[in-house]
Amino acid sequence: MMVLPSGLPGSEVTLSGDSAAPFARRRGDAVPLIHTGATPTIPAAAPLVVPTLSLLLVDDDPGIVQVLGRMLCGLGHLRFALSGHDALRLARESAPDVVLVDADMPGMSGFEFCALMKADPQLAEVPVIFVSSRGEVETEVAAFAAGAADFIRKPPAAEVVMVRVRTQLRLKAMADALRRAALVDGLTGVANRRRFDEQLQSECERAMRDDEPLSLLMIDVDHFKRYNDRYGHPAGDLCLQQVATAVQGLVRRPADHVARYGGEEFAMLLPQTDLSGATHLAERVVAAVEALCIPHEGSPPRRVVTVSVGVASARRTPDAHHTALSAEALIGAADQALYAAKAAGRCQCQTYRPPIAASDSGGSTG
Ligand SMILES: [Mg+2]
Q1: Ligand 1 ion: nearby residues, β-carbon < 5 Å
Q2: pLDDT score at 38
Q3: Residue 140 is among the residues annotated as catalytic for this protein
Q4: Beta strands, E only, the chain
Q5: Spatial distance between the Cα atoms of 131 and 151, rounded to a whole number of angstroms
Q6: Residue 247 predicted with pLDDT over 50
Q7: Rounded distance from Cα 7 to ligand 1 centre (Å)
Q8: In this predicted model, which residue has the larger pLDDT, 116 or 19?
């Protein structure tokens, strides 16, 4: 009896650090729940992570797993499982780029395994290739009905396995690139509105669940129509790119999200950040854009491109355990604060006070 690899994730890179530990990384005067005073600790030179393709091979026959492993060992990092349950656990620990699964296994069949993969939002896009000794058409059709990407007959021929797996890896790489592109703003390279809406929704849910503050900055370029009128749209595009880069450059945690909200408006979503921390960052956004010194004769008195920023923060109230934190309320509050910043003369941030509670839908602008 041969010895199989244990199926441990092995050489995968585990990210840890900033996102794992809640801490206040911005100065703040009143910070419930989170520590104060700590500054972000970012390694000066973060190691470059080169993505390695990950393949998961599943068969209750260890001999088949070993044969497939020998055929595919040059393609990437291999993991192995002898049952559907173990395979699902490994896939959930770290999503593979492709799975080869036996159709017939005791316990969980390949069909059940594949259906569960397709039902999991984190794994639904992973191609699953069936490997089966069953030759009848019905089996093949059932595999595709369960979500299979391809079907290989046993005994597997090395050349066939290799080209089929390569094809699925190539298709997945293209689909991944398209999915990423669909979430990025083409002009500025920050997240687009669609991505922001998704992030806002999930961060609202997380803030409620974990009882943590969630802050939002709405950032608007001052007198941007005048800028386009005076300097032309190509210059306007360049201006937005520079502003986006400056704003993105202030982000120090993977959990913080910068997005182009629309037109000349950007949003910054700050989980685990209270109002004072968010206000501090908003002041830095205003200063960073002004420091770009992009000439703007139509924006007196500074005559350079500036931004106004509205700041809002939300957190769950003690008695609001079953109330959803409203993304609309958070945006509405940040918008009100942004209008206040515009009305007060632009090139500044204004804060919506008090911090909105989860059950609130209105308040006053400070
Ligand atoms: Mg079997």
Answers
A1: 60, 102, 104-105
A2: 35
A3: no
A4: 54-58, 77-81, 98-102, 128-132, 150-153, 214-221, 257-262, 265-271, 307-315, 349-353, 356-357, 364-365
A5: 6
A6: yes
A7: 18
A8: 116
